[in-house]
Amino acid sequence: MTDWGYDYLIKLLALGDSSVGKTTFLYRYTDHKFNRRFTTTVGIDFREKRVVRTGADGMTENNFRIHLQLDGTQFRSLTTAFFRDARGFLLMFDLTNQQSFLNVRNWMSQLQANAYCDNPDIVLVGMKADLRNLRDVHGRQARDLVDRYRQHGLLPLTKSTKNKNTEQCEDE
């Protein structure tokens, strides 16, 4: 881990089924790199990104630490511990895989059961937006899900790790 000074440490946890693009998103967001090859992450992957924002006080530095949780029963007990410190969550699904979208409800239930933060920020992230011709999840479905969980702070975002909307997650 990099030893940066910071004013705020904000821990985010990415949740979603295997193969939705969590690792790809993580590396694109922190290192600005896109890898076309799929590799399964074993365990937990940690990345950090330093984000500097100018606040009313002059200069406020935010150091985002993103924790990646995997969909694997062998990691369930290990990963639920990471809910404790998380202040924000990325609920991720693959826009070309309807089942990964339907499973967002399960991830939301797990989040609600395990999050220690009273009012965490939650962003629904639809991955692989660049594969329009293979899209299996449509805008109306995502909007309905956001409406269902809006009182829990859920915000929508579709994204392609190739080049668009990665930085927008940070702003959301």
Automatic annotation (TrEMBL):
Question: Catalytic activity annotated for this protein?
Answer: GTP + H2O = GDP + phosphate + H(+)
Q: What GO terms fall under cellular component here?
A: membrane
GO molecular function annotation:
G protein activity; GTP binding
Per the UniProt record, one Pfam family is Ras
> Chief localization class?
membrane
Location(s) in or outside the cell: Membrane
Enzyme Commission code: 3.6.5.2
- Tell me the domain of life: Eukaryota
Keywords in alphabetical order, please.
Answer: GTP-binding, Lipoprotein, Nucleotide-binding, Prenylation
User: InterPro entries recorded for this chain?
Assistant: P-loop_NTPase, Small_GTPase, Small_GTPase_Rab
Is Amino-acid biosynthesis given among the entry's keywords?
no
Q: Say which family it is in.
A: Belongs to the small GTPase superfamily. Rab family.
Q: Which PANTHER family match?
A: LD44762P (PTHR47980)
**Name of this protein:** small monomeric GTPase
